TrEMBL record:
UniProt keyword Hydrolase, yes or no: no
Organismal lineage: Bacteria, Bacillati, Actinomycetota, Actinomycetes, Kitasatosporales
InterPro entries per record: BRO_N_domain
Alphabetical list of PROSITE patterns matching this protein: BRO_N
Coiled coil regions in record: 156-204
Assigned keywords, A-Z: Coiled coil, DNA-binding
GO molecular function, one term: DNA binding
Domain Bro-N positions: 10-126
SMART domains: Bro-N (SM01040)
Protein name: DNA-binding protein
């Protein structure tokens, strides 16, 4: 809420605050021309992590107040929006200068140097006055324009240059982030393509097994092969993924060695299934006459053989 001032500021207040803090902080301007600023805004820009402690250490009570008290003194209501709470801590322009003078940020140095120059000039000459701008308005009724002190002007220029550099760095970071996102998207698309290729390959293998199962010569082959065994099992029952995983592991052993003598724990380790699930899969293969039990080994491991020639 910026109310009209009864008098013209010698230096534009927004530029003055920007030169002091490096930011365009929120401001309330009262009808008598006094300015108040949210303490949290100023402390944030000056690097104070604890605004209450900063106010207690550097700003006398006469230069800090809560929002409701400040607006109430002029019969004004609390501004709406922008987090203008009734209990918001405000500081006067003098309080802002005190906080800046207590700040150790290098960006505050030009402003503090100018403030010191003002004090020294007043001590030596009894007053300090701003120089009038070289070009004045043609209208005699227009307010007088003053030239901004060199230190303050230089501080504003440096802060603006810093902001421009920050904007450029932010733009570069955003471009790099966009590039990384595009690379991730491309990698995801490549991964999806690879998964589709794997799925197609598995379908081709399944089709090949089905064709082997339908080949008449397969049923009369005296010596079964792993492919013919798996094709026969696939034709006999609609297997789940777990059962098929176990079948793929035990079929080569049954064909090449004539029997399966491996402990359930070993099969579980090879298939990635639990011992209980492996046992259930073997039971299902027995139920559908794919394999049959032939006792157990001395260690207690079950022994299985092919139920019949394939």
């Amino acid at each position: 809420m910026n109310e009209p001032c009864k008098r013209q500021d010698a230096i534009d207040i927004s530029d003055f605050v920007y030169a002091a803090t490096g930011a365009r902080v929120r401001r309330l301007t009262m009808p008598d021309g006094t300015h108040w600023f949210p303490a949290v805004d100023v402390c944030k820009e000056l690097g104070h992590t604890n605004s209450r402690q900063a106010l207690s250490d550097h700003v006398p009570a006469g230069h800090r107040e809560i929002l409701e008290t400040v607006t109430g003194a002029y019969g004004l209501s609390v501004p709406a929006g922008r987090e203008w709470r009734r209990d918001l801590n405000l500081i006067s322009l003098e309080g802002l200068v005190l906080l800046v003078n207590a700040c150790t940020k290098p960006a505050c140095a030009p402003f503090k140097k100018w403030a010191a120059e003002v004090i020294a000039t007043v001590q030596q000459e009894g007053s300090y006055s701003l120089q009038k701008a070289e070009v004045q308005p043609a209208d005699p009724a227009a307010p007088v324009v003053y030239a901004m002190p060199e230190q303050v002007a230089e501080a504003i220029v440096r802060l603006e240059e810093h902001n421009l550099r920050m904007d450029e760095e932010l733009a570069i970071a955003q471009r790099e982030s966009l590039s990384v996102q595009r690379q991730l998207l491309a990698a995801q698309q490549e991964n999806l393509t690879a998964q589709q290729s794997i799925a197609e390959a598995m379908n081709r293998i399944a089709s090949r097994l089905d064709s082997l199962a339908l080949t008449p010569a397969a049923s009369t082959t005296p010596h079964p092969t792993t492919e013919s065994v798996l094709a026969n099992w696939r034709r006999r029952l609609s297997v789940t993924e777990d059962v098929w995983t176990v079948a793929v592991v035990i079929a080569p052993v049954l064909v090449e060695e004539g029997e399966l003598r491996q402990p359930l724990e070993s099969l579980a380790a090879r298939t990635g299934l639990s011992v209980h699930r492996v046992n259930e899969c073997l039971r299902l293969l027995r139920t559908h006459a794919c394999i049959r039990s032939r006792g157990a080994t001395e260690d207690g491991a079950p022994v299985y053989v092919l139920n019949q020639p394939v």
